[in-house]
Amino acid sequence: MKHLFTELFGDATRLTQGGQLQAATDLIHRTLRDAGLAGAAPRQEPPDPRNVIDAESRVIADEVPPDAAARHAHEASPAAEQWLDGSFSHRGRTVAYKLYVPPTAAGAVPAPRPLLVMLHGCTQDADDFAAGTRMNQLARAAGMLVLYPVQTQHANAQKCWNWFKPQHQRRDQGEPALLAALTREVMGAHAVDAARVYVAGLSAGGAMADILGRHHADLFAAVGVHSGLPLGAASDLPSALAAMRSGPAAAATADLPACPVIVFHGDADSTVHPANGAAVARAGQQHGQPDITKGRAPNGKGFTHTVYRGADGSSQVEHWLLHGLGHAWSGGSAQGSYTAPGGVDASAEMLRFLLSHRRP
User: Does the keyword Metal-binding apply (predicted)?
Assistant: First the structure.
């Protein structure tokens, strides 16, 4: 055995000195294997083809000053935030999504964290919506996961959620069933607090958020609707256009449980009439007199803030009527579409309201 290792060492040294590193490595492995001294390679199990959720991780890198890197060289690094790409299949339909996962402390096992489902408007996608609302930055501070499902052009040519079709206004059918199933799948794959799951959206996404909140009060603790429409405002494309132009003729929510909701709508919105935002708030309001406050945003635009409170004094319904605002996310970033920078910070106010509610 000693002779074996002497020859092995000499041959490997000559190969290494000659620049043949791979040949030297192969020689060592082959000799040890022939001598019965090499362990078996670990067996790789093939992926389970039954899995329906697929995600690819992309770490969001933060710049670290050289002196800070040196100062913390011997400390455990925290788990970096992630921006995941994924897809999910349900009842024969596949939807893509992006998921923001906030960072965790070094060596810590994250406690169950809140989850917000964000539904984009027509012609948008996850990256555009995340950039415009700045929701990931706020979610990082709040320790919240944010899920961005993406509508397909196959399902809607303008990539709108189909809030106006009857089959997509029911609990166990169409897009509400798909989005609820995706939410539960993400909850199962990550450490999510089931009492703090929320849904919000803009325009068509806001309308679908209202549908999900009304039909899935057992899943979502509270809802945010920006420039959207109420459940039951339309039953086909002509009635949808009429509701967008003049406001809803009716809302089919009387027999559904009220879910806490915060509503934002510009009174200069020429795409979705502001009467729709008032109808969303009215469908969820509690009995009693509201608190009404008038004020001005940082850009000087005025607003009327109406709050309906529950028996315990908590805010159950909030309606922000934003004076002079068109069809855009208030206080958003110019990096995204359909945003109005400088106004009331709808993202921050929305998170404040949502996180104040927990599902029993």
Answer: no
